[in-house]
Amino acid sequence: MVELLSPAGNFEKLKAAILYGADAVYCAGQMFGMRASADNFTVEELYEAADYVHARGKKIYLTVNTMPHVQEYPLLRKFLADVKGAGIDAMIVADLGVFATVREILPEMEIHMSTQTSIVSPASAKAYAAMGAKRLVLARELTMEEIRAIRAELPDDVELEAFIHGSMCVSYSGRCLLANAFNGRDGNRGTCSQPCRWNYALVEEKRPEMHFPIEQQEGVGTFIMSSKDMCMIEHIPELMECGIASFKIEGRMKSAYYTAVATNAYRMAIDAYLKDPAAYRFDPAWLEELESVSHREYGTGFYFDDPMENPQLVSTCGYLREKAYFSTAIEYIEEEAAALVANGVEMQNADGRVYRFIQRNKVSCGEGAELISPGKIGRGFDVRELYAPDGSPLESTPHPSMIYWCRVPFEVKVGDIMRADSGKGLEIRAKDRLK
């Protein structure tokens, strides 16, 4: 059975990943993870996170995949000792010194080799397997054919993991020195500032005040170092059939909404394939879901293309913005429900039931919304009624993290997400109907 592995940059994202169908999550502590700018987890939170994940029959992997320097090893040893009793299912490492230290302090710990070890051949894969690595996270520069070749030469008990969605790095397997050279932020120690995404110009030696733009597309600019995001949702059968044991979604720095939607889309696609491979058909709605999250232009990485022939560079700068994430459904509180009823609010009528939400972004009466639920694509409805916890009517929800009630025409469960629809609210729809 293939594993769907989702990013958990903090506890909120971890819960979203598990609720929306991840089989496992990967996260980092406050040190030694390659996403140092993510919220990440304290040691105490790692214990709590492992308990939460295991109670739901899932797994948790801890990334310890930076390249520590001499002075960092005492801290590394303390960190490993501190998490010894957490029940982490595996550690993801990239540095052989870290590998040896994990083996010394946590001899029973399962070890996964990070994508940053640049495993691109059967010989390399077999070498790490011989050292005792249980899983190999393949370099993102491999084609399907190369992955099959690696799988064919490995023992059955050694697993392969590969990224199927998310940001790509312009440097080979993420081994980049640009940020370190430009502003002292070491990408190999988790603090990359992504200078590959910046805009650049030429400067002539004797006229440093004059900047000459480099234009790949006239009036737009050049993106010679900015990669497309990977999206393999249209290629689940090929992925399922090339020997990959774990499908990995990138994105610990992204939102809980991103985690939920990306996990949900791939969960639906994988389950559809597993239900009946022969009858499997790609559903365009899954890609539409992935288009709703923040991303650069999508491509298929190097599964089907040689990096030298097609470097998968973007043609426009910046991100395609995600749909507004209005709120998340939270637990039903009897006392608040009673207050609503006392103020004349019908809990259920012909237009649906009122449900309790916590605000993430402002929503107003008259806007169009969609509800995202595990295993389902977005279902649209019009926001007609909003109420405060005391039952008083609201025109909008302007305050961060405010609790409110909203009438929804179908069943809502805790963890469901309300987002903006395609941009049509009641007034716009009314105008459309009059045309």
Radius of gyration (Å): 24 Å
Number of helices: 12
Any idea how many domains?
A: 2
CATH topology of the largest domain: TIM Barrel
What is the helix fraction of residues, given as a range? 25-40%
Give the CATH architecture of the largest domain.
Answer: Alpha-Beta Barrel
How much of the sequence lies in strands comes to 15-25%
**Class from helix and strand fractions:** alpha/beta
Which of globular, elongated, flat, extended, rod-shaped describes the shape? globular
Features of the shown structure:
435 residues; alpha/beta; TIM Barrel; Elongation Factor Tu (Ef-tu), domain 3; 2 domains; 9-stranded antiparallel β-sheet; 8-stranded parallel beta barrel; 12 helices; 27% helix; 22% strand; disordered C terminus
Topology overview:
Layout: E1 3-7, H1 11-19, E2 24-28, H2 43-55, E3 59-64, H3 73-82, E4 90-93, H4 96-105, E5 111-113, H5 122-131, E6 135-137, H6 144-152, E7 159-166, H7 178-183, E8 201-204, E9 207-213, E10 229-231, H8 236-240, E11 246-249, H9 256-275, H10 284-291, E12 298-299, E13 325-329, H11 334-342, E14 348-349, E15 352-359, E16 368-373, E17 376-382, E18 386-387, E19 393-394, E20 403-408, E21 417-420, H12 426-434
Parallel strand pairs: 1-2, 1-11, 2-3, 3-4, 4-5, 5-6, 6-7, 7-11, 10-12
Antiparallel strand pairs: 7-10, 8-9, 13-15, 13-21, 14-15, 15-20, 16-17, 16-21, 18-19, 18-20
Helix pairs in contact: 1-2, 1-9, 3-4, 9-10
